[in-house]
Write a structure and sequence with these properties.
The protein has 212 residues and is mainly β. The protein contains two helices and twelve strands; from the N terminus they run βαββββββββαβββ.
Length: 212
C-alpha cells in the first residue's frame, strides 16, 4: 500500500518554517513510540475517564478485579472512593482522607492504579490509569505510511479580524467550546487548499497554538 504523511508547516511572518525531513520524522516517531511504551506516560494506560459537572459526584466501587474498575455516577453498594466537584476543587474522599485532587499530580489506589484530574472549560475531567495495562505491555510500534517528502508543505496562516465562537460536539455528548481564529492556506498537487484553525483557550488572545 502506498501512503503519505502530510506535514503542514505554518509560516508565520518573521519566523522561518520548521525543517521537516525524513530524519526529523523518524525522531518524532521514535519519541512517540517510546512514550507509548512507558506505562506512566502512555495514552494506552487510560482505563476510564469521566466528566464531573458542578456540584456533582462520581464514585469508584470496591471490586475484586482492578482491571474491571470503572467510574459510576450512582452510589455503589461498597464505595472505594469518591470525587466531588465544587467548582474549584476536586475533593477526593477515601476512608477518612479528603483532599483536592487538582493539587496532586496523581493519587495511587490499590492495585497500582492512579487517579489524576484536570479542569477544562469549567468542567472537571477525572482519569483512572493503569500503568501495567495489557495494551501498554503489548505495544510494539505504530503503523505508519512511508515518509513522503512531497507531502511536506508550507502553509500561510491568515487570521480573522475577530475570532468567532465555535462549538464542537464530542463523542461523550459534551459540547467543547472553541474559537475560530482563521485559516491556513497552502498548495498541494497544484491545488489551492485551506483548513480552518481553532483554539480551545478560554480567551482567544491567550492561544499560542493552532488546532486544525
Amino acid at each position: 500500500m502506498t501512503g503519505l504523511l502530510l506535514a503542514l508547516l505554518i509560516a508565520v511572518p518573521s519566523q522561518a518554517a520548521e525543517k521537516f525531513d525524513e530524519s526529523s520524522w523518524r525522531s518524532w516517531r521514535a519519541e512517540k513510540e517510546e512514550k507509548a511504551r512507558d506505562g506512566e506516560r502512555s495514552f494506552l494506560n487510560l482505563q476510564d475517564a469521566v466528566w464531573v459537572k458542578l456540584r456533582k459526584k462520581v464514585w469508584l466501587p470496591v471490586v475484586e478485579n482492578q482491571a474491571s474498575l470503572r467510574f459510576t455516577r450512582k452510589l455503589p453498594d461498597e464505595v472505594g472512593l469518591s470525587v466531588f466537584f465544587d467548582g474549584k476543587q476536586a475533593l477526593l474522599s477515601q476512608g477518612t482522607t479528603t483532599f483536592d485532587l487538582l493539587k496532586k499530580k496523581r493519587w495511587l489506589i490499590p492495585g497500582g492504579l492512579r487517579l489524576n484530574a484536570i479542569l477544562y472549560q469549567g468542567d472537571l475531567r477525572v482519569y483512572l490509569r493503569n500503568p501495567k495495562a495489557g495494551k501498554v505491555l503489548a505495544f510494539k510500534e505504530f503503523e505508519f505510511f512511508d515518509f513522503n517528502s512531497k507531502a511536506v508543505i508550507n502553509g500561510h496562516y491568515r487570521p480573522r479580524e475577530k475570532p468567532k465562537r465555535h462549538v464542537f460536539s464530542t463523542s461523550t455528548g459534551r459540547d467543547s467550546k472553541a474559537w475560530l481564529l482563521g485559516t491556513v492556506e497552502f498548495q498541494y498537487e497544484g491545488k489551492n487548499l485551506s483548513v480552518k484553525a481553532y483554539t480551545f483557550e478560554k480567551d482567544a488572545k491567550d492561544s499560542d497554538y493552532l488546532f486544525i
